[in-house]
Amino acid sequence: MKMIFIMVDGFGVPPEGWSNSIYSKYCDKKFIRLFKEYSIPVDACLGVQGLPQSATGQCALFTGINAAERLGRHVQGFPSPSIVSIIRERNIFSTLTAAGKKVSFANAYVMKTLEKLKNSGMMSVTSVMTEHALGQVLMRDDLADGKAVFQNITREGLAADYGFSEISPSLAAEHLAAISDKNDFTLFEYFMTDRAGHKRNAVMLKKYLGELSEFVVRLSEINNDEKLLVLTSDHGNCEDDSSGVHTLNPVPLMIYGDHKVTGVKSILDIYDWIVSEICG
Fold it and tell me: Can you say how many angstroms the Cα of residue 90 is from the centroid of all Cα atoms in its chain?
């Protein structure tokens, strides 16, 4: 079974229900229906006090290892040296490639190369595991050929310095679907939701949730029976526009395709679930 896996930063389950949430305000009805019908809530707190954060949350997602528990705290932003060691010890890319599966991190690196990111100390969890397991990332030429997707989906902001015109979220979805046709596991990371949530900016939330909505709906429309479309998050944030900080809410695990998930209670369980689905 092939899989498109979308990691949306700061995207929690709304306590008031999907139909009465900020998502219903800014997202397509088809998007809301996907989560009402095909998602389950999973814990993102990892058994550690405090608000969940990106570095430890994404480490849990992509390694199945509870770095927050090991360290006794949640770690925000970029992974610390201890978390980097955990990612190099085991991650979803290295596990799947060792099993003979083809994987892709579909995000295009346009502004900085992987080497420049490494030297700047701004390596995300996904960058660390891509460097460790794959050795290279997709670049500007891949984006120009429609063989990569920019992190904000539409390529907004790339025209002046890089010559890329904006595209629709639907076209970006078609590019991601085409990438996934050639891979067993295709990962795309979207973090504009977390940025908008921190700013408590209604204009940003409307824009980025709306674009994500169109992107995901189009992926669901062109999905086939041989592929699962999966979306989850590292922690909550944008579902609550009253505080500007992360939340303790569970995150959704949305799985669209011929499948019913069992045994996934926490983001820690998602790594093993991915491996079992793809490797059989």
Answer: 18
255-272: per-residue pLDDT in tens? 999 787 888 999 999 999
Q: What are 80's two structure tokens?
A: 């610390």
The answer to whether residue 62 sits within a structural domain is no
- For the CA atoms of 200, 202, 203, 206, the dihedral, rounded to the nearest 10 degrees, stands at 110
C-beta pairs of 63-66 under 8 Å, 24+ apart in sequence: 63/87, 63/89, 63/90, 63/91, 63/92, 63/271, 64/90, 64/268, 64/269, 64/270, 64/271, 64/272, 65/89, 65/90, 65/268, 66/268
Ramachandran area for residue 116 (φ above 0: left; ψ -120 to 50: alpha; else beta): alpha
Query: In the chain, how long is the greatest CA-to-CA distance?
Result: 48
Task: Tell me the CATH number at 16.
Answer: 3.40.720.10
Q: Yes or no: say if 189 and 9 are a contact pair by the CB < 8 Å rule.
A: yes
Domain count, the chain: 1
How large is the average pLDDT for residues 91-102?
98
Chain position carrying tokens 């990371």: 189
Give the whole-angstrom CA distance, residue 66 versus residue 48: 10
